[in-house]
């Protein structure tokens, strides 16, 4: 009982710290959700993922010109923030390529850089199409695979197999996932609900992330609480959080010539597949 109380107290302290980073809404290799299906590199995962969401950070990006599907481009201005209300252009890294990047809130007279909240491109109605913002406000998540969905016999439905081995959570690569602008609200509401109802930060629970059809946005990312992180994984999960938290800011670089994609990292297996490596440590 004493150990349980101790873990609950430690989770609560981490939840209080995390809450200051997430506003209340009115791996190295990234996960995408093109076509309404999660993919890791060239491997399709499916419409469901199970993960511990170790961390998140808000990212603002302003691109000049029209967006072209499949064409890589670099934002003219960008910012990272915790919490988002205090975000400013990331001038430290922009200065490395002044011919590419330019902070849009720079005062040419005083040389001061203002907050993103006051930027003209961060206002509704400035997008080239629709009534949105020219500056995209996204959240980037750091996902640690916590389970996999396996097709049941006969093809009816999928069964969730949770990982249980501490070695898996200690060594599996963390994968970044940038949310669509229209799904940021879902994530922030989920994060705050986890904190208020469980007394834990989001990385204190195992979540199911769903790519669901949406009549207006085509695809909507939804979040569901699966269960609490077991106590025997507390030290491993909090250690991984500490490792990832300091690496969430990744400055943009000018677009380079196309390079060969590195092989996909283990963790999220393609839908329906169970390999000897990923099957090990599954909790039933």
What is the gist of this entry?
The protein has helices at 2-19, 91-94, 166-171, 184-198, 234-245, 276-279; strands at residues 31-32, 38-40, 43-46, 48-62, 77-81, 88-89, 135-151, 158-163, 175-178, 205-214, 218-228, 282-283. The chain is an alpha+beta fold.
Structure keywords:
21% helix; 12 strands; disordered C terminus; single chain; nine-stranded antiparallel beta sheet; 29% strand
Distance between the termini: 25 Å
Helix % is 10-25%
Shape: globular
Report the sheet with the most strands, covering strand number, pairing sense and barrel closure.
9 strands, antiparallel
**So how many helices?**
6
How is this structure best described in words?
- The chain is built from six helices and twelve strands.
- Helices cover 21% and strands 29% of the residues.
- The chain is globular and about 60 Å long.
- Strands 4, 5, 6, 7, 8, 9, 10, 11 and 12 form a nine-stranded antiparallel beta sheet that branches.
- The two termini are 25 Å apart.
- The protein has helices spanning 2-19, 91-94, 166-171, 184-198, 234-245, 276-279, and strands spanning 31-32, 38-40, 43-46, 48-62, 77-81, 88-89, 135-151, 158-163, 175-178, 205-214, 218-228, 282-283.
- The chain is of the alpha+beta class.
- The chain has a domain at 6-59 and 137-254 and 262-283.
Q: Topology, pairings included?
A:
Blueprint: H1 2-19, E1 31-32, E2 38-40, E3 43-46, E4 48-62, E5 77-81, E6 88-89, H2 91-94, E7 135-151, E8 158-163, H3 166-171, E9 175-178, H4 184-198, E10 205-214, E11 218-228, H5 234-245, H6 276-279, E12 282-283
Antiparallel strand pairs: 1-2, 2-3, 4-5, 4-7, 4-10, 5-6, 7-8, 7-9, 8-12, 10-11
């Amino acid at each position: 009982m004493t150990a349980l109380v101790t873990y609950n107290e430690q989770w609560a302290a981490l939840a209080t710290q995390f809450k200051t980073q997430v506003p209340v809404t009115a791996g190295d290799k990234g996960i995408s959700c093109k076509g309404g299906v999660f993919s890791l590199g060239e491997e399709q995962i499916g419409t469901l993922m199970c993960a511990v969401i170790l961390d998140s950070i808000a990212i603002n990006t302003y691109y000049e010109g029209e967006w072209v599907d499949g064409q890589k481009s670099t934002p003219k201005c960008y910012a990272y923030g915790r919490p988002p209300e205090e975000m400013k252009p990331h001038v430290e890294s922009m200065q490395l390529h002044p011919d590419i990047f330019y902070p849009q809130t720079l005062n040419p007279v005083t040389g001061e850089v203002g907050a993103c909240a006051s930027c003209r491109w961060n206002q509704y109605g400035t997008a080239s199409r629709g009534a949105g913002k020219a500056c995209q406000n996204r959240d980037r998540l750091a996902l640690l695979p916590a389970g996999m969905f396996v097709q049941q016999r006969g093809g009816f439905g999928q069964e969730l197999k949770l990982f249980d081995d501490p070695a898996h959570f200690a060594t599996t690569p963390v994968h970044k996932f940038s949310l669509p602008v229209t799904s940021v609200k879902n994530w922030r509401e989920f994060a705050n609900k986890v904190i208020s109802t469980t007394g834990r930060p989001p990385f204190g629970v195992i979540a199911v992330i769903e790519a669901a059809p949406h009549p207006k946005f085509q695809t909507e990312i939804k979040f569901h609480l699966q269960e609490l992180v077991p106590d025997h994984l507390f030290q491993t999960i909090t250690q991984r959080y500490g490792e990832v938290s300091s690496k969430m800011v990744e400055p943009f670089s000018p677009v380079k010539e196309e390079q060969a994609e590195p092989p996909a990292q283990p963790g999220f297996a393609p839908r329906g597949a169970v390999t000897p490596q990923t099957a090990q440590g599954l909790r039933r």
